[in-house]
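Case study 2.
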Amino acid sequence: MEEQIWLALLAYNLLRALLVVAARQTALAPRTLSFKAALQTLLAQGALLWLGELSGSVIDALLVRLASERVGDRPGRCEPRAIKRRPKPRALLNQPRAVARRRLRRQQQAYAA
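Prediction:
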């Protein structure tokens, strides 16, 4: 599990470093490039990366492609800070189920009498 976390962090940092290289080639800020689009582009090119068949021109084309995907501008975006899920109409079961059943049966017997 710990190795998977470290591997995910390594992949994230490598992709961010690749975005920095792409941003420098096009004189853009790295934060303006889309991480998600870059990830999808690299996953689509996975066979080339895995086989190691990357020439200089392929790498340059890949960097240009990464730099072409920009983060969307969403002015005036506003999201409400509220809880979407409504509370349930039933109380929580805060005791053992057997105890709750006995109590419920006693209540039913008292009501029936």
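The chain has a mean pLDDT of 84.
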